[in-house]
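Supplementary notes for students who missed Thursday's class. We covered one full example, reproduced here. Read the sequence, then the structure, then the short commentary at the end.
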Amino acid sequence: MKRLALALVATAAVSTPALAQEIVRGGDPKSAIASVVTVPAGYDTIYVSGMTPPVVDAKATGVAKFGDTKTQTIGVIKRLEDALKSQGATLSDVVMMRVLLVGDPAKEGKMDFAGMMEGYKTFFGTAEQPNKPSRITSQVTALVADGMLVEIEVQAARKPKK
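Structure (token representation):
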């Protein structure tokens, strides 16, 4: 009887973690972001530093050098995608995102949240890539170069490679 009880406890200990092996994303399914993300123990965590947009017109100055907020967001997310790929991860592994937006001169110095969302929604919450991270979006005074409107950093989590 004692062996049976030990066998049942051992089986439960082995099978219980298997039930909690997936990342859980919660919140309103219609929302563009997850209001909460739970990452189980044992996952690899990847931290990607803030990425800024690539130059789209080297002869231009100011915002025109990097494009509008939507263009910059797309460029930044593509850079994040490349960084994640270098670590064996994808955008579907992103669990937390921090977005910094500079006030757009064309929008009276206000951040172009709608433009950022247009770019963001081409990568997250789509039929091809339905996972959405938790996220914060803030307006800042400036970034490292004149004309940059977007900087994004992410944290990603993935199952360890065997």
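Commentary. Residues 2-19 form the longest helix (18 residues). The mean pLDDT is 90. If anything here is unclear, bring it to office hours.
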